[in-house]
From TrEMBL:
The keyword Metal-binding applies. Keywords: Calcium, Metal-binding. Binds 1 Ca(2+) ion per subunit. The lineage of its organism: Eukaryota, Metazoa, Ecdysozoa, Arthropoda, Hexapoda. Belongs to the transglutaminase superfamily. Transglutaminase family. Pfam families: Transglut_C (PF00927), Transglut_core (PF01841). This is Transglutaminase-like domain-containing protein. InterPro entries: Ig-like_fold, Ig_E-set, Papain-like_cys_pep_sf, Transglutaminase, Transglutaminase-like, Transglutaminase-like_sf, Transglutaminase_animal, Transglutaminase_AS. Residues 170-180 have a biased composition (Basic and acidic residues). GO terms for molecular function: metal ion binding; protein-glutamine gamma-glutamyltransferase activity.
Length: 714
């Protein structure tokens, strides 16, 4: 702060690159102009960061151990957010929630972002260095920076065939910073490529844009002496060493299971100290780390969960299911050799707040970025930033990756049946306009509910108009007109259904060890007998929608009398499914029926999750700072088998850094109680997040709110 009448502000240009800076002051006497200049070198480096509070070009210097971002000055910043109260959530809040699980049984999973931990900013600098690779990265441009974050958060596995041959997809112009970057060998730069969801994956690369009607602005934070050495950006394979290695096949023995993480700090610390990818992560882990990095850099960010999320593998803005003449679903797309579409139970990405001067007025604000390596964009596994307004109105020509994200939340689900008389070989038998993007959640500002969903916010209307409304349909058709392949898919009619109505009954909550039923209601509205061929089945699935094990299946022909109703039911017992469950206990039920005399065909599916117990946390709600205390964790093993290689993890900013506690084998049905001692480090309203994991049982989580007080204050 300048002294009154002596000194002044040091202003950085609004597009100053984010990163580490040295600070020197040269002074010269006005009286004795021949005397030599005096040079003062500031002893520490400092960070320049984005400043969402500010509207000028002010650079602030504070020690990194203090709340260095909390200083509202400048306004000429691409990431400026006018509502300062929202910044308390989207930049300052260091603990949040990520909604995971299928529609109907989703739950908020607590996550420690920990963006003010000593290791985070150094890790961010390593990430940005590596994201640039052999090219350059305009670090004062939040569009460039967030697009880089979307590709460097994960790692690209060289030698794996992750990029099958290309498809026709009009790519956006590359951001100027991407001109010097080379795609991975074998990747086709203008196209997206399908990533096999069950493989062990990774990525790297680059691409991005610019912002709305502001100027890039940064501000400074002094780098305190940190206990971390910077990883050399010229290390071997530095251009591909992303932060997290993604894996979806359940084999995590050489790393940490994604469900075992409690937050981002342990991940970033391992990345910073080893310089290597951290094993393992999945979509919500990527999104949690992205939130940490963005908030640390001063970019407002939130985690977004899309329940029933489409993966459009061929840029048709549809999800396509194919069936043979016997009504058996094919596990591949016979019309697309690049890979089949899929429907994830849920998918998690991020929104970041910024202006978009590269787009027409009105497309700034929240922008979607996705760090999960699903498809390539301009040769790299990266996605966004895509304006939510562009997604909502179907403006697929705007950068970046709007068609892919639009399909994720609003594609139609088409079912096709083999038809020898069709030129395409398949006839569209049904279309579902409501299945994809059932609801989109984020954490509500300023709230935290460790025991429920009072802190959940529905932001579906920010991504699309009300499902089925004229506005929503017009927006989708606007997008379809801009994608040639989509036009061909949507212009084909479906077989009309008029005489029979079918309904697959959604399942209510099913606790692990309980039976459940697959039920289909049929209503014959006609005056004639109808013969129906039906198939009902249940399968365990990975949350990416990939089928793991068929659990039970029944099929048969039967007649439905005129003006009457029938009920089909398939009962699934615990002994049918318990040994076939995969991680997260996700299940899918399927139903397909054909009216034999009219060839009218109907199909439907529903995802649900077998419910596991929560991890109960007992700790005093009010604790003195710097005084040892005890926390108690407990849950009951719901399985009829012994749990092995057990461990608890817990952490909380201001409470304790990440702790890992190995635990003995747990017997079938045993009530487990673990007590552990910790010492709260900082006064204030704090949160504790914990997980339990074992070889046989994952994803047991819990959280608690704690008030830590300083009893030395009067």
């Amino acid at each position: 702060m300048p002294l009154k009448g002596n000194g002044g502000w040091v202003r950085s240009p609004p597009d100053s690159p984010v990163g580490e800076w040295n600070f020197e002051i040269e002074t010269k006497s006005k009286v004795d102009r021949r005397s030599p200049a005096s040079l003062y070198k500031f002893p520490s480096k400092f960070y320049l960061l984005f400043n969402p509070w500010a509207k000028g070009n002010l650079t602030l210097s504070l020690t990194a151990s203090r709340d260095a971002l909390f200083n509202p000055w400048d306004k000429d910043d691409h990431v400026y957010m006018e509502d300062k109260h929202l910044l308390d959530e989207y930049v300052v809040n260091d603990v949040g929630k990520i909604w995971v699980g299928p529609y109907g049984t989703s739950r908020g999973r607590e996550w420690v972002f920990g963006q003010f931990d000593d290791c985070v900013l150094p890790a961010c600098m390593v990430m940005l260095d590596r994201a640039a690779g052999a090219g350059t990265l305009k670090r004062g441009d939040p569009i460039a920076v967030t697009r880089a974050i979307s590709r460097i958060t994960h790692t690209h596995a060289r030698g794996l065939d992750l990029a099958p041959a290309g498809r026709s997809h009009r790519a956006p112009e590359p951001h100027p910073d991407e001109a010097g970057l080379r795609p991975w060998p074998g990747a086709l730069a203008p196209n997206r490529h399908r990533l096999p969801p069950r493989s062990s994956v990774s990525s790297g690369g680059a691409h991005h844009t610019v912002s709305d009607a502001s100027v890039d602005k940064c501000w400074g934070v002094v780098i305190a002496d940190a206990p971390y050495d910077r990883v050399n950006s010229n290390d071997e394979d530095v251009s591909v060493a992303g932060v997290i290695h993604g894996r979806w096949d359940g084999d995590y023995k050489d790393g940490t299971a994604p469900a075992a993480w409690t937050g981002s700090v342990a991940i970033l610390e391992e990345y910073l100290t080893t310089g290597k990818e951290v094993k393992y992560g999945q979509c919500w882990v990527f999104a949690g780390v992205v939130t940490t990095v963005c908030r640390a850099l001063g970019i407002p960010s939130r985690v977004v969960s899309n329940l029933v999320s489409a993966h459009d593998a061929n840029s048709s803005l549809t999800v396509d299911r194919y069936y043979d003449l016997n009504n058996e679903e094919l596990d591949y797309d016979p019309t697309n050799w690049e890979g089949e579409d899929s429907i994830w139970n849920y998918h998690v990405w991020n929104d970041v707040w910024m202006a978009r001067p590269d787009l027409p007025l009105g497309y700034g604000g929240w922008q979607a970025i996705d760090a999960t390596p699903q498809e390539t964009s301009l040769g790299f596994f990266q996605c966004g930033p895509a304006s939510l307004e562009a997604i909502k109105c179907g403006a697929v020509g705007f950068s970046y990756d709007v068609p892919f994200l639009l399909a994720s939340v609003n594609a139609d689900l088409f079912r096709w049946k083999e038809d020898p008389e069709s030129d395409r070989g398949y006839t569209k038998i049904s279309s579902n306009k409501y299945h994809i993007g059932r609801v989109i959640f984020t954490k509500a500002p300023w709230l935290f509910d460790p025991n429920g969903d009072k802190d959940r916010e529905d932001i579906t209307n920010q991504y699309k108009a009300e499902e089925g409304s004229a506005t929503e349909r017009l927006a989708l058709m606007n997008a379809v007109r801009g994608v040639e392949r989509a036009k061909r898919f949507y212009e084909l009619p479906s077989i009309s259904r008029e005489e029979l109505e079918f309904e697959l009954v959604d399942l209510d909550k099913v606790n692990i060890g309980e039976s459940f039923n697959v039920v289909v209601n049929i209503n014959n509205k006609s005056n004639s007998v109808k013969t129906v061929k039906a198939i009902l089945s249940a399968a365990s699935v990975y949350y990416t929608g990939i089928k793991a094990h068929l659990i039970k299946k029944a099929s048969g022909d039967f007649q439905v009398q005129p003006k009457s109703k029938e009920l089909l039911k398939l009962t699934v017992k615990p002994e049918d499914y318990l040994d076939k469950l995969v991680e997260y206990c996700n299940m899918k039920i399927y139903a397909l029926a054909t009216v034999t005399d009219t060839n009218e065909t109907w199909g439907e599916e529903d995802d649900f999750q077998i419910i596991k117990p929560k991890l109960d946390i007992k700790v005093s709600e009010s604790l003195p700072v710097n005084q040892p205390t005890v926390v108690k964790f407990s849950f009951t093993n719901p399985l009829k088998i012994t749990l092995t290689k057990c461990q608890f993890k817990y952490e909380g900013p201001g409470v304790t850094r990440n702790k890992t506690i190995p635990y003995r084998d747990i017997r079938a049905g045993e009530l487990v109680v673990l007590e552990h001692r910790f010492t709260p480090m900082r006064a204030g309203a704090q949160k504790l997040v914990a997980t339990f994991s074992s070889t046989e049982l994952l994803d047991i989580t819990g959280a608690a709110s704690i008030d830590v007080y300083d009893d030395t204050e009067e």
